[in-house]
Amino acid sequence: MSGPVPLLYTRGVETYYGNIIALRGVDIAVFEGEIVTLIGANGAGKSTLMMTICGNPQARTGQIVFDGEDITHLPTHDIMSRSIAQSPEGRRIFPRMTVMENLQMGAMISKNGTFEEDLNRVFDLFPRLKERQHQRGGTLSGGEQQMLAIARALMSRPRLLLLDEPSLGLAPMVVKQIFQVIHELNRSEGLTVFLVEQNAFHALRLAHRGYVMVNGKITMTGTGAELLARPEVRAAYLEGGRQEAAQ
Ligand SMILES: Nc1ncnc2c1ncn2[C@@H]1O[C@H](COP(=O)(O)OP(=O)(O)OP(=O)(O)O)[C@@H](O)[C@H]1O
Ligand SMILES: [Mg+2]
Prior knowledge:
The chain is α/β, with parallel strands linked by helices. 39% of the residues lie in helices and 26% in strands. The chain contains eleven helices and ten strands. It has helices spanning 46-53, 76-80, 99-107, 115-125, 127-131, 142-154, 172-189, 200-206, 224-229, 231-237, 239-246, and strands at 8-17, 20-30, 35-40, 61-66, 69-70, 84-87, 160-164, 192-197, 209-214, 217-223. The strands form two sheets. It has a six-stranded mixed beta sheet with strand order 6-7-8-3-9-10, with helices on both faces. Helix 7 links the parallel strand 7 (160-164) and strand 8. Helix 3 packs parallel to helix 6. The longest helix has 18 residues, at 172-189. Residues 241-247 have low confidence and may be disordered. Bound molecules: adenosine-5'-triphosphate and magnesium ion. Adenosine-5'-triphosphate binds next to helix 1.
């Protein structure tokens, strides 16, 4: 490999569920300071790739390297203690805990002793969470829960933020707001983001680069603008996005 080394890369990753192959030799790279998106249809393997990066399930073959270290066979808790934070699909917050308690859980993995500072930072990004800090997570609206899931991930001060479908089930206005925050974090702090999305239109507009996954394989890659312009991408992934953008 020539040029700079990616913060995260995968080489030939294959992941199975039992005997069924879900990832068929995936190569992706995410450089420091980039927003990279992975788009693809339902069941393509997007969440599987994100979960494989986090070590659950583990890749059966291939290699995953973060910050120069092979993390392919590390247990999940070791991976998450290496400055990777994940907001999983379906925003798995703790429903019975309050907003504040959820954020405290996110901070536990960080060793910085900067809780107050980090809390103020996520409250600045999501003022709604500050207003609702004593409310139980499970009673928040869908959009608020998504904000909480991202805020909780940010509490550990990650170098790499993994986001799985943050726009799922949210109204266009809320999606815009959440993508704006991701853009802002990347612009002002240089946060590196790997974003899995079905909302290809917004994701490709936000991202520096993107990958398209079909049936467990990467079939296309390019800058966000390049992929947005490709007729195959438009035909397969952009119909909903265009309608939404027109609203
Ligand atoms: N725990 C599991 N056990 C068995 N098969 C699974 C499991 N999780 C996912 N799969 C299968 O692996 C394939 C990839 O699923 P995955 O969730 O990664 O897709 P995805 O691209 O994230 O889809 P979506 O956009 O619907 O979230 C699918 O065929 C799915 O049924
Ligand atoms: Mg998924």
